[in-house]
Each structure stands twice: as structure tokens, then as C-alpha cells.
Amino acid sequence: MNTSRVTIASHLNQTNQDTSAELNNLIISSKVLESVPHLGPAGRLVSAPVGHALEAAFDHSLGDPILWAWQTHRDLKAAATATLDGTGQPEHVALAEHEISSIHHPEVDITVDQWAPVTITFDLTLHFTLEGLLLTVQGGLLIGLGPGACSADATLSTHGFELSRSAQYTLHELITLHTGLRLLPASAYTRRSA
Fold first, then answer.
1. N or C end of the chain, less CB within 10 A?
2. What is the pTM of this model?
């Protein structure tokens, strides 16, 4: 897949430009909403709004969980501390093949007529396998990515409904470092500028 910005929504939807339409069709075919108490047959009528709500919830960069995990990586934090004053050479941190998993529980609230609102909780599991790569750290920031490859798997499920998608990406498709990524607590950078 070659897009300018890979989001969770665009990763889940690899066969159709309209992610919410695909989610709507999957929700209808799985009959997940019809099994929700108080909805019954009305579940078919709210599948489109549920698909739109999920698409909006998934309009986030697919690479964000990777960056979050790297912010906790011991070697990257050590390189950030060593380069924090910004006067020395950048440090390069090699990461061997590694895996990152991230689990989320997006919720959609549905209100039909006078019934009390119904909340449907979905399970979203993201799993990344990253091949060996070189990261560059300077001034306490992650500023560069080597030409690494990443396989990404996403699974969205609830009440017998499941949608799984896998794809291969280069890191530059998933992650953009415009101004660098802070690897240390904000207070470390405040002390540096003081």
C-alpha cells in the first residue's frame, strides 16, 4: 500500500476507498448490532452511523503505537540523555527485529428512539514486526529512521464480528519525524533551555 498518510482506518480498508461503507457492510453481514439488547432488527438501521463513528475513531496514524513504544526503549532513552545538550554528534541506535503490540477498546454509543443508550465496545489489536533498522538521536530527539520494513496486522472484533488486515510498509510510510520525537520527559528539555 502506498499512501501519503497511513491511518488505522486506511489499513483496515484496503479494498475500498470508503472505509465506513466497508465497515457498514461487515457490520450488517455479521449481524452484530441485531444481537445487541434493545436494538434487535433496528440494528440494521444504525450500522451506517456506527461505521462512520468507527472510521472517525480510526483516523489516527498507524505509526503512533510504534513511536510510543520507542519512547520507552532503554537504548533510545540512553542516547537521548547522552545527546540532550545538543553539542555532540548524533548517536545511532540499532534495533534488531522486534515486535510491538497495542490493544485498544474503542466504544460507540447508540441511541434509538426512547431506549436508553447502548454502548458497543470493539477490540482493536495492532501488531507490528519491524526488521532491523538504525535510528538517529540528537539533542535528546529521535530525528532519523533507517530504511526499515514493517509488517502491520490489525484485528477489529466484537460479539462475533471480526475484521483482520495485514500489510507491509516501509517505516517512512508510517512515521514522519518533522521536528523530532521527544524520548525523555518534558522536564528534561525545560532544564536544557534554562
1. C
2. 0.82
Q: How confident is the model over 101-117, as pLDDT tens digits?
A: 999 999 988 877 777 78
Q: Which residues, at least 6 apart from 48, have a Cβ–Cβ distance to it below 8 Å?
A: 20, 24
Grid cell 545538543 is found at 86
Residue 70 makes CB contacts below 8 A (sequence gap 6+) with 76, 135, 142, 181, 183
Distances (CA, A) of 79 to 22, 24, 113: 44, 46, 57
Please write down the long-range contacts of 75-79, taking CB distance under 8 Å and 24 or more positions apart.
76/135, 76/137, 76/142, 76/183, 77/183, 77/184, 79/137, 79/183
∠ Cα 59 66 133 (to 5°):
135
